[in-house]
Design brief:
By secondary structure, this protein is mainly alpha-helical. It has one domain: MFS general substrate transporter like domains (Growth Hormone, Chain: A, Up-down Bundle), CATH 1.20.1250. It contains 15 helices and no strands.
């Protein structure tokens, strides 16, 4: 995450200011990035159940290095779109496999604490990498920075050989779809789909809002963005031991959605210090939601089929990302880069209502009791 800090919301500025791409073209690029998540999610998860995750992690880093090098060289939109698609596909394979690596080596004890620890390192790297990227981009420019990141990814691919091997097995496709046909799994995936639409607003409009709305330099942008990642880091460290029990996790989810949505809405306010405070609130909310998502995956699915089922859940979030990118990219260009944050923030807060009322959860449990025989439910439990 430190090495790839240059990609953390800086790319939209690169596309707009250095390559001259329009808002619609930028939206297409990030929609393509999300589409690679759609295409890679289930096949990568399926592969991680049949081949050790460290193999996919190493391969993903090598192909990312190739993608970064080409991104620093090409300038025309259509070739760039193809290269960006290739890099995004490699990036999604890497990230999904790293998540499965953590989930599959879990012992079942203190799961929330372990996931929080892992994500804390991840967001700590994001914070450091984003601060460093702002200064590196100022010194080296985007092209040289992308070449540097390519070299670092190659070095990391060699280090990935030291990861522990994960358990593998051959699973039928019907087993995955049987797991995922559970009403609770469908509800969880649909809820995350709607939550992930706000990622489209961030990737298409966040960097441009900071640049054109708040008029920040690249160094200032790095410091601004790192504050959010620092907020996520602190949240993960403080809350990771307080997620045991269904009621506690439910309260974490409600708090996460409200904080994330309110932070998105408030970050468009001036002065910069007030905007930064709300963006940090958004980071707090996203930190809580990271715990909810990964603990939900660990609790819903068995370890033998966790890779494929996690891929299906990731598929739903990537579809949300695609939807958000296609909607919020053009919206930001034509209505102003603050508008997507108002709308996506309001939608995120509304997602807390079903959890507060608990009606969808009760409906899912009742439907599952009717559709799934008691013998099967007992075996699954």
């Amino acid at each position: 995450m430190v090495a790839t800090g240059v990609t953390n919301f800086f790319l939209s500025v690169f596309f707009s200011e250095k390559l001259g791409f329009s808002g619609r073209q930028i939206g297409v690029l990030f929609a393509a990035q999300a589409l690679t998540g759609v295409l890679a999610s289930f096949p990568t998860g399926l592969g991680n159940d049949r081949i050790t995750s460290r193999t996919f992690i190493g391969a993903g880093l090598v192909f990312q290095a190739i993608g970064f090098a080409l991104m620093g060289w090409v300038r025309m939109f259509v070739p760039y779109l193809l290269i960006f698609f290739f890099w995004s596909l490699s990036n999604n394979v890497f990230k999904s496999s790293l998540d499965v690596q953590i989930l599959k080596t879990d012992t079942g004890e203190r799961t929330g604490s372990r996931i929080g620890f892992y994500q804390a390192w991840r967001y700590g790297g994001l914070a450091v990498g984003t601060i460093g990227a702002g200064y590196i981009l100022h010194l080296l420019d985007f092209q040289k920075s992308l070449f540097t990141v390519a070299a670092l990814c190659l070095a990391l691919s060699w280090m990935s050989r030291g990861l522990a091997p994960t358990p593998v097995t051959r699973v039928r496709l019907s087993d995955y779809f049987a797991d995922f046909s559970s009403p609770r799994a469908i509800l969880f995936a649909g809820w995350l789909f709607l939550f992930a639409t706000h990622w489209g607003a961030e990737y298409t409009c966040y960097g441009l809002f900071l640049r054109k709305g708040l008029h920040l330099s690249l160094q200032q942008m790095g410091l601004y963005m790192s504050a959010e990642f620092a907020a996520v880091l602190v949240t993960l460290l403080l809350v990771r031991n307080r997620t045991n029990g269904k009621r506690r996790l439910r309260n974490v989810a409600i708090a996460g959605l409200v904080a994330s949505g309110a932070g998105h809405i408030g970050m468009v306010l001036r002065p910069v210090a007030l905007s930064l405070a709300f963006r940090s609130l958004h980071g707090l909310g996203d930190g809580l939601m990271v715990l909810v998502m990964y603990i939900g995956l660990a609790r819903l699915f068995s370890i033998e089929r966790l890779g494929g089922n996690a891929g299906l859940v990731n598929l739903s979030t990537m579809l949300g990302f695609v939807t958000g990118s296609l909607i919020y990219g053009p919206m930001g260009e034509h209505l102003g880069y603050s508008v997507p944050f108002w709308i996506s923030g309001a939608l995120t807060i509304l997602l807390a209502l079903p959890i507060v009322t608990d009606h969808p959860v009760q409906w899912a449990r009742a439907l599952e009791a009717k559709l799934v025989p008691a013998r099967v439910r007992s075996k699954a439990a």
